[in-house]
Write a structure and sequence with these properties.
With about 270 residues, the chain is of the alpha+beta class. The protein has one domain (about 35-269). It contains 10 helices and 11 strands. The protein has helices spanning about 10-25, 35-45, 55-65, 75-85, 145-150, 180-195, 225-235, 240-250, 255-260, 265-269; strands at about 85, 90-95, 100-105, 115-120, 140-145, 155, 160-165, 170, 175-180, 210, 220. It has a 4-stranded mixed β-sheet with strand order 6-9-8-7, with no helix packed on it. A 3-stranded antiparallel β-sheet has the order 1-2-3. Helix 6 crosses helix 7 (about 225-235).
């Protein structure tokens, strides 16, 4: 039987064509998936009146958008947090803010070793307490270790201090609290959500960030420059994005825009 000799040029062409086909079959799709695709969808629906704006115009548009929400009671927050902050590695536990500890969902309460409801925007900064509205807004409420939560108290946020016992790397001094690195962006985006959501037009104080610490009972929390830096240093995680989605889908039906668009922090402030 005669062997058919294929010219070298022809063999190279066939090999290249075959490789191209195999590459096309194996290559992942470049279509946006996950949070990227979801954000793009919300840009044409939920955020459509905010796209392209900056400064006070953007802040005003976002305020109108996110003020449409379903409010829940303070007692209902317990069960909500068990879903929003569920440990992705163990459905029987929640991940605690500041410490990063995974703790049983059943250990919610007020004793040492329990977790309770941390108001990231301290409730005394604006006088809303635990009232339905800012006092129960899941976008700034997180599970936290009882003792770590007590150490944070109503302190403003800033860099520096001494290590917080069992705080996962968080620091504290006389007038400020610094969360562990993995939570810094989360804290910044929760604080800035509150500043956009609560503008003094619904019976509650106009909440605003400023460049001070020691704000006490004033409706302010600092420091804005530090919060902006934290937003840049610690971008939204999959955990944070999932939390935003659960709140939107199952509870309040509004979103934290700075999780979807962290660049809007700089666009406003």
């Amino acid at each position: 039987m005669l062997a058919i000799r294929i010219p070298e040029r022809r063999r190279r062409a066939v090999a290249l064509a075959t490789a191209a086909v195999l590459t096309a079959l194996a290559a992942p799709s470049l279509t946006a998936t996950g949070a990227t695709a979801a954000t793009a969808d919300y840009d044409t629906t939920y955020y459509k009146n905010a796209i392209g704006k900056t400064g006070t115009s953007l802040k005003s548009s976002l305020h109108t958008i996110i003020s449409s929400q379903t409010k829940i009671s303070y007692s209902a927050v317990w069960n909500a947090l068990k879903e929003t902050d569920e440990d992705p590695a163990d459905s029987g536990k929640v991940i605690l803010l500041y410490s990063g500890v995974s703790r049983s969902k059943s250990l919610n309460g007020g004793d040492a070793g329990d977790w309770n409801r941390e108001h990231t925007w301290a409730k005394s900064h604006g006088g809303f307490g635990e009232a339905t509205g800012p006092g129960t807004d899941l976008h700034h409420l997180r599970p936290a270790d009882v003792q770590v939560n007590s150490i944070r108290g109503n302190l403003d946020f800033d860099n520096g201090g001494s290590a917080v016992a069992n705080g996962g790397g968080s620091l504290v001094d006389a007038d400020s609290f610094e969360p562990r690195d993995a939570d810094k962006g989360d804290v910044a985006r929760m604080i800035l959500y509150m500043a956009v959501r609560y503008e003094g037009d619904d019976g509650w104080a106009d909440l605003e960030p400023n460049e001070k610490v020691g704000n006490g009972s004033n409706p302010y929390i600092g420091k804005l420059a530090v919060l902006k830096a934290w937003n840049d240093e610690d971008p939204p995680s999959a955990f944070e994005e999932n939390r935003n989605q659960v709140i939107y889908d199952s509870y309040q039906h509004n979103r934290n825009p700075f999780i979807d668009h962290p660049e809007w922090v700089e666009a406003i402030w």
